[in-house]
């Protein structure tokens, strides 16, 4: 039976610890930088298999924590991973259509599905008074090497940090703090992914060839310019600008 493009993607990405770059220390930095309370209502928007949900649950055991993920298989992985936490709930759904209020929204590498300005405007409607958002988004400097430019070629909305800040402000938010995700954060995603590509290639499944080749190309480009292929982790709050 021929695999669909979606089935091939899920076969490649199944059972990986993360679906994008990041480390627990990034979550802790955001929680502390935004002074997220011990009993806060927290949402992980686009939670994937639950790596950051797990860190949030461990860091704020008295908080009410939710994860929302549109891909059912990844949501199921998150539920299994977080099953022993009594304060965590995972929902399969659209992170652009929230129906509750939160003190803190965390989103690792997922807001680009909505657009930074558009996503922040939507999420602002679900922020409790005094609430804040932390998200990571690609950035690309104009003088970045060609490998970095090729890495983000399929994401024409990518800008440098100044452009990202402007998109945040266009949504009526202000930047509290920001920092790039380091090389170790990318390695935490790409090393398991590279190992899985190697295992799947050993099985010689020709139907997976396109997604395996694309993953290998992505990893090769990252390795060619690890200091320039990056996300910026942004801590933002609603401001007084236009929304």
UniProtKB/TrEMBL annotation:
GO biological process terms, semicolon-separated: methylation
Protein's UniProt keywords contain Nucleotide-binding: no
Signal peptide: none
Family matches, as SUPFAM superfamilies: S-adenosyl-L-methionine-dependent methyltransferases
Keywords carried by this UniProt record: Methyltransferase, Transferase
Keyword check for Transmembrane helix: no
GO molecular function, one term: methyltransferase activity
Residue ranges of domain Methyltransferase in the record: 42-128
Pfam families, sorted: Methyltransf_25
Name of the protein: Methyltransferase domain-containing protein
Species per Swiss-Prot/TrEMBL record: Roseovarius bejariae
Native organism taxonomy: Bacteria, Pseudomonadati, Pseudomonadota, Alphaproteobacteria, Rhodobacterales
């Amino acid at each position: 039976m021929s695999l669909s493009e979606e089935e091939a993607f899920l076969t490649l990405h199944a059972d990986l610890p993360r679906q994008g770059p990041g480390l627990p220390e990034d979550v802790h930095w955001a929680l502390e930088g935004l002074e997220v309370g011990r009993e806060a209502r927290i949402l992980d928007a686009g939670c994937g298999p639950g790596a950051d949900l797990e860190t949030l649950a461990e860091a704020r055991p008295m908080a009410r924590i939710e994860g929302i993920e549109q891909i059912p298989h990844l949501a199921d992985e998150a539920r299994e991973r977080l099953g022993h936490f009594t304060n965590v709930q995972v929902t399969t759904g659209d992170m652009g259509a929230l129906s509750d209020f939160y003190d803190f929204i965390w989103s690792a590498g997922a807001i680009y599905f909505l657009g930074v300005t558009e996503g922040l405007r939507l999420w602002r409607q679900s922020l409790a008074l005094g609430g804040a958002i932390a998200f990571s988004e690609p950035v690309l400097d104009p003088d970045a090497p060609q490998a970095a430019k090729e890495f983000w070629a399929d994401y024409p909305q990518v800008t440098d940090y100044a452009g990202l800040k402007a998109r945040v402000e266009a949504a009526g938010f202000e930047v509290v703090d920001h920092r790039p995700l380091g090389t170790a954060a990318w390695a935490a995603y790409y090393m398991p992914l590279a190992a899985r590509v190697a295992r799947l290639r050993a099985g010689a499944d020709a139907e997976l060839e396109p997604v395996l080749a694309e993953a290998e190309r992505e990893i090769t480009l990252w390795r060619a310019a690890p200091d320039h292929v990056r996300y910026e982790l942004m801590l933002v709050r609603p401001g007084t600008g236009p929304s």
